Queue: 2 jobs
Job 1
Amino acid sequence: MNIKLTLLTASCALALAACGGNDTPPRDRDTAATPPPVAGDTAPDSAMGAGNTPPAATTPPAQPAGSTGTAGNTGTDTAAPAAGASGNKPAAVVNDCSTTIEGNDAMQFDVGSITVPASCSDFTINLHHSGQLPVAAMGHNVVITRAADMQAVASAGLSAGADDNYVDPDDERVIAHTDLVGGGETTSVTFAASGIQGNGPYKFFCSFPGHSALMRGTIQVQ
Ligand code: ZN
């Protein structure tokens, strides 16, 4: 009885709503009949991943690979590790237990991997946003987790929201992370290299909504 009644009420309400919209025809029917398109706000990950095709082959900044006469050149250019879905981006240039990587307005990091020298106890990642878009539209950060934790950490970050840099502050799976930065800004994080040893593989990625599909790479101690 009660259920029937509520259903009845509901359908009545629906009918009323439907009728209410129609029984006051404005002079111009056409404008009333074409509602503005509603932007679907669901599933930023797949939507952005599919819709955004960044320009192919952005030439990286001129960085002579190993030609600057560094002492310990281990000749990595011949034995390039198989890059997975992240494409064939170069490895980060590491100096004095730190590296600087870039994120741009096309939702891309400029490197596909970071190798932390085994001699480093701490390691610093500087993140420079080389684009111009504001942080709310194209924010970038660097989050480091085990590869197996990446998706879950990204989801938890999504729930945490922009105020927490899209990183859940209580998420113990997060090994290290930077703040979010917008165009022209730089941030950095220093973490213990021991955090990415022994239980890998490990990934770095941007946890801004939808970005981890493209902005990700591998990080390891070697
Ligand atoms: Zn990003």
Note: The pocket of zinc ion is lined by residues 103, 139-140, 206, 208, 211, 215 (CB under 6 Å).
Job 2
Amino acid sequence: MSSGMAGRFWNSLTFRLTLWYTGLFTLSACIAFLLFYLFLTAVIRERLDRDLAGQAGQFAAVLREQGIRAVEEFALIEAQAAGEKKVFYRLLYPTGEAFSSSNLAFWRQIGISKTAIARLLAEGKPVFATVSPPNRPEQVRVLYALIGPAVILQTGQSLEEDSRLIAAFRRVFAVTMVLLIALAAGVGWFMARRAVSGVEAIARTARGISGGNLARRVPVTGRGDEIDGLAATLNAMLDRIEKLVTEVREMGDNIAHDLKSPLTRIRGAAEVTLLTARSAAEYEAMAAGAIEECDRLLGLIDTMLMISRTEAGVEKPARERIDLAALLREAGELFAAAAEDRGVTLETRLPEALAMDGDPRMLRRLLANLLDNAVKYTPAGGRVSVGLTAREGVAEVTVADTGSGIGAADLPRIFERFYRCDQSRSVAGTGLGLSLARAIARAHGGEIAAASRPGAGSRFTVTLPTGVG
Ligand code: ADP
């Protein structure tokens, strides 16, 4: 493994997750073992203390019923029966002086504690102590108890067996811990790999996409977990980006196309004039044609810029108090002549006045685009109706016609820049009118919608907050 790869491994999420899992598991196992260990030692100690106290009770009974000689003998017999290396008995005066004992060959180092005797006499309750005699590996549990009015029993029991049990427990604990840690590390690694594999798949796809393949998508496993949520979000984002990129590409193509045709026309006219014509009138006609084409081009570029700036919020609408009804009336009058020329009836149903806060220049443009389309796409004998209503702070402008209508497949796309329905290709237009109308409506905090049935006509509805309480 190279040093870079090794560095990546130690920094990897898989490694850190495994480390955390193993660490936490080991810590919990240690706590569990420690609690069990404390519990075990406490139980062993309690059992031993009960044993010793029980024996003191027996000694007291023997003393009460049979006298001191019998107690001395009882001590010898009991020590022999239990094993003289395991237990010893000493009988003491309250002064702490021993007057009898079992065989003490193994117990010489265990002295008589003056403090324990003082406590015993003061409290009247048996006193326990744990002693570690020099030269002996195991500890000894010692009990001082009053078994008669002036007789103290000191008895001790070796803790060797208990120590062996606890040592065995420690060994089992050590071995089990090593196995458990290895197991925890294995399980932790497996779980971390599973958790991280989704993220790796996403990273792989992202690398593929950076390589230029925008059509790739992150795999969704269907488990419905967080990684799936991330994958779905990323895919949705990629869908949007892909759509945007396609749109930008199409727009680029459209712009190039829309600029190319008039430029070709200007160039063609100039060439023909140079090659053939000589009279000043012909040069003038060519210049006038060129100016007209250029104006059209500049208009197109202006509209494009206006849409972009309005959508981006650079071009903010003015907030002037205006009369929307008057604006509509004005627009109606403006298109009356064009409608009449085409044999189309234009009718307006407007209130006296409708105040709202907005940009008159932009709104005029919006209304003009809608009316222009309605008249343009309605054949002779048709009708265009313009209406205006208002309720709860929202003005609703409707421009309805009995024209050609828009197909269901085209309807969702007519507000896109440069989009023109196939059937309209013969009619002059840029495909920008409705995009600008929507940008203006939205800049005013409103919206525009279209409903249409091919052959039956279309209805455009613009909702605008009036901003007037
Ligand atoms: P254009 O310059 O082509 O009119 P628009 O953005 O104004 O561009 O409109 C986009 C397309 O929507 C038009 O090409 C036309 O096909 C369709 N359209 C818009 N208004 C109407 C209408 N009132 N009736 C039928 N079709 C319409």
Note: The first strand starts at residue 87 and ends at 92.
